[in-house]
Amino acid sequence: MNILGISAYYHDSAAALVQDGKILAAAQEERFTRKKHDARFPKNAILYTFTEGKIPLQKIDYIVFYEKPLVTFERLLETYLAYAPQGFHSFLTAMTAWLQEKLYLKTVLKKELAKLANCKTSQLPPLLFTEHHQSHAASAFFPSPFENAAILCLDAVGEWATTSLWLGEGNQMIPQWEIDFPHSLGLLYSAFTYYTGFKVNSGEYKLMGLAPYGEPKYVDLIFENLIDLKDDGTFRLNMKYFNYATGLTMTNQNFDNLFGSPPRKPESKLTQREMNIAASIQKVTEEIVLKLANTAHRELGLENLCLAGGVALNCVSNGRLLREGKFKNIWIQPAAGDSGGAIGAALSVWYQYLEKPRKGSSSDHMQGSYLGPKFESEEIEQYLKDVKANYTYLEEVQLLQEVAQILGQGNVVGWFQGRMEFGPRALGNRSIIGDPRNEKMQSVMNLKIKYRESFRPFAPSVLLERVSDYFDLETSSPYMLLVAEVKEDLHLPMNEEQKQLFGIEKLKLPRSKIPAITHVDYSARVQTVHPETNPRYYKLIKEFEALTGCGVLVNTSFNVRGEPIVCTPEDAHRCFMRTEMDYLVLGNYLLAKSEQTQWQKDESWKNEFELD
């Protein structure tokens, strides 16, 4: 039984193939088109899943879309009527897109799928639709290791729901309650993303990374004016300050007046004020998530919690929930945003629609999230020959020893292996890696390789068995979705003058013995590396540990600002050649930048991408 799940037409379109309940393949369209957050029909992602599953479209039994567009259309109409005559311009703008395509999505999907299969629409398998939050909940619960769990979904908005609680038991998910649009924690956070000058739907990570540089001075202002928060975590926003329900921006003049100025212009200088605002909305978000989760625990009485939706990617909030919340176990879908809806929709058909049995297990079913394309040695070597690259082929043992030495010498390495990760995080197969002990590594990676803001932190990849030696974390974190503090015995002491540093000046001061992955508040976004899901990356870190005594590597996604994570050897080589990366590893092939005769620093390529 083959089920194809699709998410598309809003942002981060993706496709997933589920066979007899097992996730065979999943990928985002952006990785193939090289257009970040590509929302178009995921033609390339679908074709990839067919290739990986070794089946044609004709062998698909069900196709399922991750939400119900007609219900979303109903919400748009009712929202306009509720606010009319406000919002007429934005209503007309939205209606143009809906009347051209989205209102007839079933027909559009069938036409696109028929093109792929070179058949008539009448010959396609049944096309089903799940609800948006149902897809999120299914993506969180069904791949989790739990037989039963509370499922909390937090995002901007689906059809109507912005927050929902579900009870997961066996092969069923039972809805408990929801908070509806326009009252949305995801949209509240995005409003502050917009106000601080970052791009909505991609800049939220930046806002989270900026927060530790500031002080939460605006928390009371937010609670007194923007949001009415109850003790159980439910809330209502004061729409007097927001424009997203009626306009084309997130905030309005009332919001500007409340905070004393208009939104920061993108790419302009960041000030202490933006840092304080970021710290404030981060703290507010954490308080709301913690209250909602505690309510879920009180109402359902379970020890397991599953999370999905874009807000579930806030790993700082997740870390606090793990430390202070009442749930014993937490599992977060690594592709918690809309892309993961493709997996959730397909699994919802298998378990709920077809009522197939399901049992919990000792590990989750996401396979480390390594669900994307892989490339054989022959393909890699042929590409390197075609571009006349200078390279060396090494067997695994020698390769790992060589790369460990290269890293220990302070070099930055592009690391391209196996199947591409599904979701927004690089987890050791499409990664840029370095030595976490190097004080200059963060600035080098940000400014010379990633071409992004200097304040952005980097994550550690740590051997599973060593995680508690470096971090205050007693559980695994395979998907880089939990923030924990670096162990106190690794902290570096500060004198009184250093303690007085504030804002971006904090960045100049190394905080621990692994400074490249230690944020200014002594935290780190931890990825535990497991020999079962990524044996080669695990062996590399073991080799680095044997050489240096350090069982941690710096890990950031293999891309530059404005570009999706690399997918193919060609993508990786192009990124390597356009940045100041020192070495590239493609499978078993090692390339040194100094040996690439055609290399020169060239930043003109940046014009190809929209910088966020």
Key descriptive features of the protein:
ATPase_NBD; five-stranded mixed β-sheet; nine-stranded mixed β-sheet; 3 domains; transferase; Carbtransf_dom; transferase activity; about 600 residues; 20 helices; alpha/beta; Nucleotidyltransferase, domain 5
Please compute the radius of gyration using only Cα atoms.
24 Å
CATH level 3 topology of the largest domain: DHBP synthase
Q: How are the strands of the largest sheet arranged?
A: 13-21-20-14-15-19-16-18-17
CATH architecture of the largest domain: Alpha-Beta Complex
**Tertiary shape:** globular
How many structurally independent domains?
Answer: 3
* Largest beta-sheet characterization: 9 strands, mixed
What percent of the residues sit in helical stretches (DSSP H or I)? 25-40%
* CATH homologous superfamily designation of the largest domain: Carbamoyltransferase, C-terminal domain
User: Uncertain spans, ≥5 residues at pLDDT below 50?
Assistant: 604-612
Distance between the termini: 41 Å
Strand % is 15-25%
Q: How confident is the prediction overall: mean pLDDT? A: 93
